[in-house]
Amino acid sequence: MNDPRFQSAIHFVIDTAELVRGQEQQFLERLQPLVCEQNVTLDLSKVQRIDAAGLAALITLYCDACKAGYRFRITDPSRHVAELLNLVRLDRLLVTRREDDSGCNSLAFQESAA
């Protein structure tokens, strides 16, 4: 199968401690075009705080990727983020192990202070 949607993914390392209201719009503006063009995996190991707006942004990215025929996954969530994703049952939908995403191209994403 040579379908590009099932080949390598771009791997982003989110280099910010918070994904909260006020930051989600910039986060979406940066990543929405990418999830509509290729598989994307986000490393959330550095994100220590996430709120409902951050969760909504992750769900938006997941839905946009699905509509476009691509995968959107999260890898290495911090303990707090993993607990919250588990609590709202999004871990089963969004979280993958890093070794499941072989062939990822890694990029860092850092939010600028507003």
Which key phrases capture this entry?
114 residues; alpha/beta; Transcription Regulator spoIIAA; five-stranded parallel β-sheet; two-stranded parallel ribbon; 4 helices; globular; disordered C terminus
Briefly, what is this?
With about 110 residues, the chain is an alpha/beta fold.
Approximate strand percentage: 15-25%
CATH topology: Transcription Regulator spoIIAA
Helix/strand class? alpha/beta
Radius of gyration (CA) equals 13 Å
Number of strands: 7
Biggest sheet strand line-up: 6-5-3-1-7
In the predicted model, the low-confidence regions spanning at least 5 consecutive residues are: 100-114
**SSE string:** EEHEEHEHHEE
Task: Work out the count of structural domains.
Answer: 1
The shape is globular
**What is the percent of helical residues?**
25-40%
Overall residue-averaged pLDDT value = 83
Assembly state: single chain
At the first level of CATH, the class is: Alpha Beta
Describe the secondary-structure layout.
Blueprint: E1 9-14, E2 18-19, H1 24-35, E3 39-43, E4 49-50, H2 52-68, E5 72-75, H3 79-87, H4 91-94, E6 95-96, E7 105-109
Helix pairs in contact: 1-2
Question: Could you please describe the fold and organization of this structure?
Answer:
The chain is α/β, with parallel strands linked by helices and 114 residues long. 37% of the residues lie in helices and 23% in strands. It has a single domain (10-109), classed as Transcription Regulator spoIIAA (2-Layer Sandwich), CATH 3.30.750. The chain is built from 4 helices and 7 strands. Strands 6-5-3-1-7 form a 5-stranded parallel beta sheet. A two-stranded parallel ribbon has the order 2-4. Helix 1 (24-35) packs parallel to helix 2.
